[in-house]
Design brief:
Blueprint lengths: L2 H6 L2 E4 L3 H16 L4 E4 L7 H5 L3 E2 L3 H7 L2 E4 L4 H15 L7 E4 L5 H12 L5 E4 L2 E2 L2 H5 L3 E5 L3 H12 L2 E6 L6 H30 L4 H11 L3 H12 L10 H17 L5 H15 L11 H4 L8
Parallel strand pairs: 1-2, 1-4, 2-3, 4-5, 5-6, 8-9
Antiparallel strand pairs: 7-8
Helix pairs in contact: 4-5, 5-6, 6-9, 9-11, 9-12, 9-13, 10-11, 12-13
Pfam families: NAD_binding_11, NAD_binding_2
Family: Belongs to the HIBADH-related family. NP60 subfamily.
Protein name: NAD(P)-binding protein
Length: about 300
């Protein structure tokens, strides 16, 4: 992308949750270093305070943001929020002849990605990319996410410097079928919840047989030195249930539910996801939906009866 092209881009961002806030912060820093700025909007206005202090502009509404942006990123909690926001954005885009590029970064079901893509495709001047990300909130703030890209190849190449400002690596699926990126994200999250289920089961057994948790953690750090294993292993070993820097049970249920449906729709099975889903459901029923999803060890501690 040339400097002139970047100067012509007016970048907007919708959604400043735990992931979106870190991503937007890094994108704004990149834009500011090139003499520009990010315009943001969030349903809860107080979440815009931090990035406003860094020099980002705050839109008064989605309409205001759409009217001043020709590249719009979205990072939202669930499918319903994504559909609601894009119904508004596409309606506003019908009144604009200038191209608007939409970059959707949320974890959503593939059918939702397809639906939004079709809404945008009704107006050929516009473009839609599905670009979910991998990484915990601390990785988002550090600009160390894994960025997944799907959609029009020319548009992906054009926006690559923006993607790079928020990520450590870009995984280009090289397909215009945006549902593939959503499927890819769900499969990646399956490996995450599978890791958590294994760790929780292992630590629960270690507690039953009175094995020192620090020794078990040392084994994991030595023999399975992957970020997810180390990160969630430390969280479980410490006894922390806080969602800070992690992922709440409620959103975990959404993602695991999506991956189970994806598997069922394609004649596959995910037994590990089925077990984890039941454990997450039990946590939510106990009023623990706001805890980190690694809290499933609490269900496992209750023993076999709790698994029925």
């Amino acid at each position: 992308m040339t400097t002139q092209q970047q100067q012509n881009d007016r970048i907007g961002w919708i959604g400043l949750g735990e992931m979106g806030s870190g991503m937007a912060k890094n994108l704004h820093a990149y834009l500011a270093s090139n003499g520009s700025h990010l315009t943001v909007w969030n349903r809860s206005p107080e979440k815009t305070d931090a990035i406003k202090e860094q020099g980002a502009h705050v839109a008064t509404s989605i309409e205001n943001l759409a009217s001043t942006s020709n590249v719009i990123f979205t990072s939202l909690a669930n499918d319903a929020a994504v559909e609601n926001v894009y119904e508004q954005l596409v309606q506003l885009a019908t009144k604009v002849q200038e191209q608007i590029i939409f970059v959707e970064c949320s974890t959503i079901h593939p059918t939702t990605a397809t639906k939004i893509s079709q809404l945008v495709a009704a107006y050929p001047q516009h473009r839609y990319l599905q670009c979910p990300v991998f990484g915990r909130p601390d990785r988002a703030h550090a600009g160390q996410l894994a960025w997944v890209a799907s959609g029009d190849a020319v548009t992906i190449e054009k926006l690559q410097p923006y993607f790079e400002s928020m990520s450590a690596t870009i995984i280009d699926l090289k397909t215009t079928d945006v549902s593939k990126a959503s499927s890819f994200k769900l499969m990646g999250n399956f490996f995450a919840i599978g890791t958590i289920e294994l760790l929780a089961e292992g630590f629960a057994l270690a507690e039953k047989v009175n094995i020192d948790k620090s020794a078990m953690l040392h084994f994991i750090e030595t023999c399975f030195p992957a970020p997810a294993w180390i990160g969630y292993g430390r969280k479980i070993a410490s006894g922390s249930t806080s969602k800070a820097g992690g992922f709440p049970v409620t959103l975990g249920l959404k993602d695991v539910g999506h991956m189970r449906k994806l598997a069922a729709d394609h004649g596959a099975t995910l037994p590990t996801a089925d077990v984890a889903y039941k454990n997450l459901e039990k946590l939510k029923a106990q009023g623990k939906g706001d805890q980190d999803w690694s809290s499933i060890i609490e269900v496992l501690r209750e023993g076999p009866e709790a698994q029925k």
